[in-house]
Fold each of these.
Amino acid sequence: MLDKLLFTCNAVLPIILTILLGYFLKRIKLLPESFWKLANKLCFRVCLPILLFYNIYNVENIQAIGENWKVILYSCCAILVVFAIGLFTAMFAIKDRKQKGVILQCVFRSNYAIIGISLAQSLANGNSMVSGIASVISAISIPLFNVLAIIALSVFVGEEDAEGEIKKVSVKEIVLKIVKNPLIIGVFVGIVVLAIRALIPYELVDVYSVDEEAMSIVASQVKDYSFTLKDNIPFLYKTIENIARIASPLALIALGGDFKFSAVGRLKKQIIIGVTLRVLLVPALCLIFAYVFGFRGTEFPALIALFGTPVAVSSVPMSAEMQNDDELAGQLVVWTSILSAFTLFIIIFICAQVGIFVV
């Protein structure tokens, strides 16, 4: 199990160290104070949408969505139930309307795109089916996370009228925010391009890989499409790939630049509520019910990654753009990332001990 502890640390520590780099750069005043807000805006409007497009476009087999409908249905239902729990918590436990949506977002929105998929693939132990399920879940969960995040960050924060009173946001306004949101646009374009690719004629090509543990050659088949961005427009694909790669590091550096240790005392209650729900209650609840519903070895690694990882990095620039408390959002990213290194190890250890999967 030591190797899994090391893996969870290796998955989470780069996030913490990148945040610390941003904090250090701010302390030495290498960059002007205005840079951090502008970097957040760049991430939200350009880099993160391209990252989401890239992740969805690289789902290898769109037909696998239908083949794994049970785990996908469970994932979606569980996310919606967790959203309801977060909504109830935000309404009755948080007073500041600009913090309610941030807490709600922290409860249901995990860092599946950046940490989760890699974690699931590590737990797969070379099982291609496990890796495939993790990728397929990403094509469904990422759009759902972003739609729910827009709702969460909209319902509690309205616009002030001439008399200073807060006007409630209408359903029409929320729908318009969803349609115009850069992250949703990135997801939508990714799904459209992925669907078009699925209609393009292809042939199955045999590929061979070496299984070092079994000391044997493993044969498998992959689809060879007659047209893909990577093969036919490589300069465009490479550009998208490069921008996608800088999205998370830039968002984390900007987060570190905006992070204030002095805010921990003032936001202690909100941090405790958000962190407890994100890294303790939600994983325990969702994984116990997954076990009860019969999910085991091939699906469980993806479910651990979906529900056990810290809150998404993109929650910070999204909170800032939608006039919510982005300082609290940043605190929640930092503390859930730190504590998830320990909670993920405990989850993996327990699952291995009861025989849900082998590590």
Amino acid sequence: MNSDLPAATDVRPVLLGLSPAEIADLLADAPFPAYRAKQVAQWIYGQKAASFDAMSNLGLQDRAWLNQHFRLGNLPPDDERVSTDGTRKYLFNISEAGEKPAYVECVYIPDGDRATLCVSSQSGCRMNCGFCATGDQGFNRSLSAAQILNQFYSLPFADDISSFVFMGMGEPFDNTDEVLRALNRLTAADGFAFSPRRITVSTVGVVPGMKRFLDESECHLAVSLHSPFADERARWIPAQKAYPIADVLAVLRHYDFRHQRRLSFEYILFGGQNDSLRHAKALVKLLSVCPGCRVNLILYHPVPGKPFLRPSPEQAFLFRDFLSKNGLFATLRQSRGEDIEAACGLLSQQKKGGKI
């Protein structure tokens, strides 16, 4: 151990998020046969073992040695909220002992015999989007692959999850290395073996990370748009100034989304601000350069202190229908978990403020 680190900090390496080969390298000097490393990886990715002690085909001394030198990396939620519609929101404290508390959220959304998990990639966020509760917190830290995967690994409903959306706290491509590592473990045959077609990663358009993701992953991409007009989008999404949507679209044109891989644009409808016919017409024109893309319309989830309103259902349907009639595949997403404040950042914001 490094004697310069605070005694309260646990510096044992974490195994969750590592490949079987990386686990084998870490365990190369362990006082047990080399094949134990493969067994450990199988317990993590095949069984989602809750602890080293649960790895029953390892000897007691082997398990004790693992506990002494490593951490599995799973951490139970610090808080849970359950909605009347079945949505569950979980809050995790990801800080080490002696550190300032840092929180991150995920949301479990059941839908019949399927369930989606919305995960976070950062605690807080640097993007400072004007409509987002997470942005109000500022940036705290990026999550490790283990901390991203733990949002799935530690849940009692983990076996029911059929798809993932990286649409929680943080900008995934502000944390590209760890997000790609987490995606690899979710989709690899020697990982959790989910189809990449079951995973969608959302971005405001951070181009360098987005390009790496498109080249190194086969998962779906969602781009947060919210306005077809550059000046208006820049007021709500400051990243527009560094990565204009025109530049984002110029990159996307080089990729084929007409088959299995999906490109979607997230568009939150703010009543009276971006839900007009003028916006709809401009949106159709803007996205004409991306054949096969779709638009996911989202009714604004109110955040205290934000100057945005939810549009009427009638206006939302008119907006959707105009897009559909003019060649864009458009859906209107059903709001879930409103009674448990499922909008990203609200629960962690309350926790930081000592309100829960």
